[in-house]
Hints:
The protein is an alpha+beta fold.
Amino acid sequence: MKNINNLKEFTEARGFGEESIRDIDRNTYKYTNCGAWVVEQKEEREYASLFLEESMSPRYYSHSTGLTIGSIVEGADYDCTPVTVTYPFELDEFWEALKAVETQANEIWEVTNE
């Protein structure tokens, strides 16, 4: 399988016609039993350039590092422990993370509603 290095590659590999993290989040919520959510993980990085003047602002930029999947368990007032897949990753790793969140949501639901 091919390594996924960024959101564009992820949407292409996923193959659902999504164009943004918002589309991914909406489809994941809509088509999972637990109503899972997906957010893009980012970190601030400082520009590294010999030509960058100290007075220039901003000196930092946001860099995407991966995706985090989680879920709020409706009717139980609990959240699942989020799972992060960090670039580069394979598409199977995302599906495994999503499955782990769904499994945890089901377990929480069963424990709190029996």
